Amino acid sequence: MTNEKVFINADEFFNQMHEAISGAKKTVYLETYIFEQDQLGYRTLAVLAAAAQRGLKVQLLIDGVGSAQWTYSHAEVYRKQGIDLQFFHPLAWQKHPSKILQSLTLQKIVTGFSKANHRNHRKICIIDDQILFICSMNISDRHLKSVNGDKAWRDTGVRVEGSSIQTYVISCLETWKYPHQFFGLRWIQVRQQKKKSHQEILRLMHFASKQIWITNPYFVPDFKLLKVLFKAARAGIEVKILVPMHSDILGLKFAMQGFYGALLKRGCQIFEYTPSILHAKILIVDNWASVGSTNLDYRSIFYNLEADIAIAKIENVDLLKQQFIDDLKNSKQVTLQEWNQRPWYRRLLQRFFLFFRGVF
Question: Pick from 157, 188, 257, 295: CA 20 to 30 A from residue 344's CA?
Answer without folding.
Answer: 295
